[in-house]
Amino acid sequence: EFQPQALLHAARADPGLPTPRVVPTRDGRTILSTPDGALRLLTWCPGTPVAKLPRTPALARATGDALARLTIALRGFSHPSDDHVLLWDIRQFAALGPLLPSLPDRLQSDVRAFSAHFQSSIAPALTRLPTQVVHADFNPHNLLADPDAPDAITGILDFGDMVRTPRICDLAVAASYLVDPEAPLSLLLPLVTAYHARLPLLPQELGLLPDLITARMLTTLTIAGWR
Q: What whole-number distance in Å separates Cα of residue 132 and Cα of residue 74?
């Protein structure tokens, strides 16, 4: 219920946002109970997964703009289930401790050191930043674009990780997938600049962004290793 209600809210707030639209039943329900479980129907979004397209500054700008639009559209939305505990949520980084033995020894020590830094400095700072429901998984597999005109996002998919968290965590998630090892800022700068142009970042949010990107990357490594 959390997901279709969020999609309905976002579509009302920004009708041009490229999210799937909820198709209700004839009597107006967004979820239909069946003997095999819950059923819902969403419209189709055109495009190719961004993960299959060249990573360019133009596509990074489009990603930043689309994320900011979605964040603005979800502003003010609430649901009884929005504050659930999600291990992928960056603010839950300290909870990854029991999973660290799944990592190689050389990486474990780095993650433990960063975790101590996170708990002492980052976590307290996050509690003072704007918080709302966010997508929380703006990765290239959940975004669609037109291969012939990849300067705009044509689809935003998979709202299964939505959670109420500091909104800057959402940008950190998107940024963590756009770090080019050869030129780390080549895609991060257009991403963050486009986001900031539509939804201005607070100085405190911008200051935490590098550490939050690191936290998300380490979260991905830790959960993947554990699984």
A: 8
Please write down the HEC assignment for all residues of 99-122: HHHHCCHHHHHHHHHHHHHHHHHH
Residue 42, classed as helix, strand or coil, is strand
Crossing angle for the helix pair 57-74 and 167-176, nearest 10 degrees? 160
Q: How far apart are CA 141 and CA 96, in angstroms?
A: 24
Residue 59 has pLDDT above 90, yes or no: yes
% pLDDT > 90, the chain: 96
pTM assigned to the model: 0.94
For the chain, give the longest Cα–Cα distance.
Answer: 58
The answer for residues whose C-beta is within 8 angstroms of residue 140's C-beta and 6 or more apart is 49, 50, 51, 177
Amino acid at 42: L
Q: Is 220 helix (H, G, I), strand (E, B) or coil?
A: helix
Mean pLDDT of the chain: 96
